[in-house]
Amino acid sequence: MIKKVETARPDNAKRFRERFMFGISLLIIIFMSGCVIQSPNPFARYSQPLREFTIYGKAPEKILVISVKGIISDASKDSFLTTQPSMVEEVVSQLRMAERDRLIKAVILKVDSPGGTTTASDILYNEILRYKRRTGIKLVVMMMGMATSGGYYISLPADYIMAHPTTVTGSVGVVFMRPLAYELMDKIGVSVDIVKSGDKKDMGSPFRVPTDAEKDIFQSVTSDLGNRFISLVKAHRKLGDEALREVASARIFLAEDAVKIGLVDRTGYLEDAIIRAEEMANLSRNAKIVVYRRSSSINDNLYNSSTSKYPGGEVSLVHVDFLNEIQKLGTGFFYLWTPGSDIAN
Q1: Are 54 and 289 in contact (CB under 8 A)?
Q2: Does CATH number 3.30.70.1320 belong to domain 43-177+240-343?
């Protein structure tokens, strides 16, 4: 008699695990295949050294173009399997590299930024100023869509400031920003218990209403930082008293108005800035225009603000998702025109 042997069918949980693992394996294969096609080393996008790329020109003497685009910050950005250098780190790296090249005769700083933190802006200002003093190289700033607050602050060491005809600049001042949560907490019945060694230890806390004394302290610090900004504008731009008072109101200016008041030397385009740099450095019109990047870019030109290319897109000195960047900055003092977060991207 032949016995019928029945094979047990796998249960639903086992089938689910098998299908899940198959799906994960397939995704890994697709991901790795895509990486191999687009980049031999997708995880080295920021570890690659900066290299010089020529945009055009054949003379030995060079003009370096450095892009500063986005929120000015000294904080690096962590993303999937990599860390992106901060704007401060990347710009300073380019200045250091340029300092070692004696054929660099002029630098064009291409600025498109609403500003950033007070400290990061001041660091870049100081690094640019010290680079100029150490090398004696002429520096031209070319303002693009926006060069407000910290974006203008870092432009101050320039020998010549040029603005695109549609540039928005100015906003010479400081803003202190912090989130407030105490009204929401009252509505949902949540409170925070704080034990402190001094009555002002938790000043600036989002969990309570600030006292009048604390408001005065914040205003004093903000005013001092603002006065530092104004003093640097006065030292670099030699504005008259009336013009300085208008600038100190922290208002913004279109390019032509910025020229009239003295914040900018003239309006023009990027090619005009190159011509001006050639004239100031006594170079021929065939000077080599170079940029520093971590990877090559097809059909590269001066409007490319990236230093690296990787699977999925290009990496700028700083991401230009302004609204998200401002939200990440948190509480603090900023040389920043905050409305720029809504219109600049």
Answers
A1: yes
A2: no
